[in-house]
Write a structure and sequence with these properties.
Blueprint (H helix, E strand, L loop, with lengths): L1 H20 L17 E5 L2 E5 L2 E2 L13 E2 L7 E10 L2 E6 L24 E11 L4 E10 L38
Parallel strand pairs: 3-8
Antiparallel strand pairs: 1-2, 2-4, 5-6, 5-7, 7-8
């Protein structure tokens, strides 16, 4: 019986330490979204919306980070690539990305296929148009992979707030419940 109690106590300590390690510098609680505004950019008549926050908490909303673009872009874009880095080190990349398609997204995992720590990551979308011209859309995105709740999302723009035209509508629901106040 003592061994059983020891195991439960040890598990509790590990759980406590693990829950707090993701936000040691309090980046999320300080509202990292206000430090890196979301992006709505128009290039060649196409609107691109890039959220500045995603949760990767498996609730079915905002679990993935990807590029949103306006409708009727078929025939205009040849290729989109995405790379994610932390402190200049690439941790994720994908080519032949399709905007508005969650199959071509970052799910918050690193090279080891484990969820990265919650925090601020750099992204870069390279968009190649059919006329061979390119544009780079880059910035920072906050990830909440530690299931922290009560984060101040006042300045956050989430994928569920995409207006369907390549823009952002702050009046649209985030669907994050307690994870985003």
């Amino acid at each position: 019986m003592k061994f059983y109690h020891f195991l439960i106590f040890s598990f509790g300590i590990l759980l406590f330490l693990n829950c707090n390690k993701d936000d040691e510098d309090n980046t999320l609680k300080a509202n990292c979204c206000s430090e890196n505004p979301y992006t709505v950019t128009t290039v060649k008549g196409i609107n691109f919306f890039i959220p500045n926050y995603f949760t990767a908490n498996s609730n079915g909303a905002n679990d993935l980070f990807f590029l949103f673009q306006g409708p009727d872009t078929s025939g205009l874009i040849q290729n989109i690539s995405l790379s994610i880095s932390l402190d200049g080190n690439e941790i994720f990349s994908i080519t032949n990305v399709q905007g508005n398609n969650s199959s071509f997204a970052w799910d918050g995992t690193g090279p080891d296929n484990q969820l990265v720590n919650s925090g601020l990551y750099e992204y870069q979308f390279e968009v190649e148009f059919n006329d061979s011209s390119t544009t780079t859309l880059d910035g920072k995105v906050c990830t909440n992979t530690g299931w922290e709740i009560g984060i101040d999302c006042t300045d956050c723009a989430l994928g569920t707030q995409h207006d369907g035209k390549g823009g952002f509508d702050e009046n649209l629901e985030t669907f994050e419940g307690d994870a985003c106040k």
